[in-house]
């Protein structure tokens, strides 16, 4: 009996021992799962001793890591099929298992299939099945000494054209200028001084570039770029001892500073951008849109890079193409922008700080967007020279057409329209204005007075008030309308709302949270208080006077449908006719504030404005911004909205009106 029990126990232990024996399937599956997790150290631990003699763990991990990083590998997935029934293997067997590994790479999807071979290994205290590894397990056909070469194939960046097909941001060439140290002669200091002024690079930067560790006597040291069409500058540089030119592919901006804030520019991708775009295939060699349309349309302009991955032999020759996909070039865009209008506006504003927008008031096509002072975006191709200055909202080179400003008296037509719509204004009724041109409500007290440009008129109707730009009339009218009603009606004009436009334009607003006082409400009637608008939005708010009630949607691309509605039924046709008729008199009447704009062959309407910028009502040292909005009234095709800063002591809005007049002469009279 005891003997039977002993035999039974031995048999049980024998069976347990058999079930605990290692299986090749277990090792293989563990290797595949570690591969999917990119746990290369775990993979190495499952290799055979013979394989480990071929490659160290450090080299194994490094090899997989470098290859996969080099090809931008992601989404690795291993598939395999294990035997359905359990197999018994002898220690001399070398079982094999088929597998397929799929992954995404810079060259598109890549698939490799191979067969893993396992061997049985046994020591005094351990036995296992291990992977017999070879380089072909990375990619089929790869042998010892081979390398993987991955190359990105860059797409052509899409180009941007104006409405007439003229280039705004195109792929061209620039002349890269630099120095060759061995060519410099005794006058090298003089050469550096002259070159510094011509390419706008400080002498200190030139010296720093020449002293880089890689520079040899015959090295070409690039210092800057010159546009290919700047022949005069090129010819001024060419005779300087030591200088050399090299043609270089680059993004070119034919309008230069005239459209810089509109087009923006491209530059080398920086570390922050790489981090944000890490899942979009950007590399340190890429360029990226930094500002303007180059940035706003980056995804479509960039296109889709292609790539190829090949196995190269030890001699550097290509042995096998693993994956390849062709690049998809970026999309071209044709804008509604008219280079003639853009250039004319920029020329008039060249010496000023200001913003301007021009559009076709019936179709909504934006013809120009200008911000001054400006910069040459062609210089941005070699770095981010202007980037901080442009993106700093307080910097001189900021994009002003994206910002909002107090519109001053150019806001009065909006007050007039809302007053007519609500019945608070009777266009024929006259308001009594103090002869001393100064007014306040008795209930206000204090020093909150509203003044107007001196006028002999003391009985003023709506047309008189618009023609002479009477602040007191519109302050009274605003109080008659009431704050709640005005804020409600102003929504019809798109206030406190994002402008439907591909470039970010700050939303216009009436208040910063409601009218704080009756005095602020009165000031808002003539575009002061807390009212702020962009030049583009202000121009758009005038379109209902032209379309007889509809505010058009601004469009920037020629393939967009024209004459789209942003806001419908903003005002009635009767209100539109009344306000337009009065704004024609602002130009036509001898008393009109824009009478100096009158053209012989072009009938125009418009409104001037001078916005006071003061820290307080008692501030006598404040500055002024000058405004003017104007359009041609017969077959309206051009509406121009301009704001120029710091016009105090320069004529106020009358500093602006002749500039706008010249644009109409350039565009309409010359046709």
Q: Oligomeric form of this entry?
A: single chain
Average pLDDT taken over every residue:
92
- Secondary structure tally: strands: 25
Tell the overall outline: elongated
Which stretches of 5+ consecutive residues score pLDDT under 50?
4-18
Class inferred from helices and paired strands: alpha+beta
User: Using only CA atoms, what is the Rg?
Assistant: 37 Å
Distance between the termini: 123 Å
Strand content: 15-25%
Helix content: 25-40%
SS field, number of helical segments: 22
Secondary structure elements and their pairing?
Layout: H1 2-19, H2 24-36, H3 40-45, H4 49-54, H5 57-70, E1 74-80, E2 96-105, E3 108-122, E4 127-132, E5 147-153, E6 160-161, E7 167-179, H6 188-199, H7 203-210, E8 221-227, H8 231-237, E9 243-252, H9 260-263, E10 266-268, H10 271-276, E11 287-289, H11 292-296, H12 298-302, E12 306-312, E13 318-325, E14 333-334, H13 339-349, E15 354-359, E16 366-372, H14 387-391, H15 412-422, E17 431-432, E18 438-439, E19 450-451, E20 459-460, H16 462-468, H17 471-481, H18 483-490, H19 518-524, H20 535-547, E21 551-552, E22 565-567, H21 573-588, E23 604-613, E24 623-632, E25 639-644, H22 657-669
Parallel strand pairs: 6-14
Antiparallel strand pairs: 1-2, 2-3, 3-4, 5-12, 6-7, 7-8, 7-9, 10-11, 12-13, 15-16, 15-25, 17-20, 18-19, 21-22, 23-24, 24-25
Helix pairs in contact: 13-22, 15-17, 15-18, 15-21, 16-21, 17-19, 20-21
């Amino acid at each position: 009996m005891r003997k039977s029990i002993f035999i039974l126990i031995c048999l049980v232990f024998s069976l347990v021992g058999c079930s605990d024996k290692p299986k090749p399937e277990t090792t293989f599956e563990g290797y595949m799962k570690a591969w999917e997790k990119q746990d290369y150290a775990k993979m190495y631990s499952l290799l055979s001793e013979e394989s480990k003699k071929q490659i160290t763990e450090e080299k194994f991990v490094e090899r997989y890591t470098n290859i996969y990083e080099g090809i931008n590998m992601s989404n690795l997935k291993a598939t395999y099929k294990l035997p359905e029934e359990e197999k018994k293997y002898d220690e001399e067997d070398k079982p094999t298992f088929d597998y397929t590994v799929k992954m995404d790479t810079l060259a598109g999807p890549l698939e490799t299939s191979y067969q893993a071979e396992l061997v049985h290994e046994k020591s005094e205290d351990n036995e296992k099945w291990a992977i017999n590894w070879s380089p072909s397990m990375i990619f089929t056909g790869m042998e010892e000494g081979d390398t993987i070469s991955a190359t990105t194939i860059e797409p052509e960046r899409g180009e941007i054209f104006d409405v007439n097909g003229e280039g705004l941001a195109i792929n061209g060439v620039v002349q890269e200028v630099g120095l060759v140290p061995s060519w410099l002669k005794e006058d090298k200091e003089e050469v550096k001084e002259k070159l510094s002024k011509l390419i706008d690079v400080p002498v200190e930067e030139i010296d720093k570039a020449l002293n880089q560790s890689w520079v040899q006597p015959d090295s070409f040291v690039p210092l800057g770029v010159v546009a290919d069409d700047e022949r005069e500058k090129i010819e001024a540089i060419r005779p300087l001892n030591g200088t050399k030119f090299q043609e270089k592919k680059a993004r070119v901006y034919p309008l230069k500073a005239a459209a810089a804030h509109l087009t923006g520019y491209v530059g080398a991708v920086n570390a922050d951008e790489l981090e944000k775009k890490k899942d979009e295939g950007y590399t340190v060699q890429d360029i990226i849109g930094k500002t303007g349309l180059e940035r706003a349309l980056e995804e479509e302009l960039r296109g889709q890079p292609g790539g190829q991955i090949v196995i190269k032999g030890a001699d550097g020759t290509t042995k096998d193409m693993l994956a390849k996909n062709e690049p998809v070039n970026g999309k071209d865009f044709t804008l509604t922008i008219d280079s003639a209008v853009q250039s004319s506006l920029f020329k008039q504003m060249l010496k000023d700080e200001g913003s301007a927008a021009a559009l076709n008031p019936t179709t909504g096509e934006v013809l120009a967007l200008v911000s001054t002072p400006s910069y040459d975006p062609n210089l941005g191709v070699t770095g981010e020279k202007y980037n901080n200055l442009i993106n700093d909202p307080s910097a001189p080179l900021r994009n002003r057409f994206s910002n909002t400003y107090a519109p001053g008296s150019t806001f009065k037509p909006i007050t007039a329209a809302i007053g007519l719509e609500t019945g608070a204004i009777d266009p024929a009724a006259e308001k009594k204005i103090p002869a001393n041109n100064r007014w306040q409500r008795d209930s206000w007290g204090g020093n909150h007075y509203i003044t107007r440009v001196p006028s002999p008129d003391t009985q003023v109707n709506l047309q008189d008030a618009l023609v002479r730009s009477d602040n007191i009339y519109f302050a009274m009218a605003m109080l008659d309308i009431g704050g709640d009603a005005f804020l409600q009606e102003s929504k019809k004009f798109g206030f406190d709302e994002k402008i439907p436009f591909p470039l970010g334009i700050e939303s216009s607003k009436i208040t910063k949270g409601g009218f704080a006082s009756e005095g602020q409400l009165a000031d808002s009637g003539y575009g002061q208080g807390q009212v702020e608008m962009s030049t583009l939005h202000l121009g758009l708010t005038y379109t209902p006077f032209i379309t007889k009630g509809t505010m058009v949607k601004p469009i920037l691309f020629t393939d967009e449908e024209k004459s789209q509605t942003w806001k419908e039924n903003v005002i009635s046709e009767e209100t539109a006719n009344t306000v337009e008729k009065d704004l024609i008199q602002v130009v036509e009447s001898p008393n009109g504030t824009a009478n100096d704009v009158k053209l012989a062959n072009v009938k125009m309407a418009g409104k001037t404005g001078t916005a006071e910028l003061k820290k307080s009502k008692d501030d006598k040292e404040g500055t002024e911004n000058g405004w003017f909005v104007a359009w041609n009234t017969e077959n309206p095709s051009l509406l121009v909205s301009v704001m120029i800063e710091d016009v105090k002591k320069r004529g106020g809005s009358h500093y602006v009106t002749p500039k706008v007049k010249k644009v109409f002469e350039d565009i309409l009279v010359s046709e």
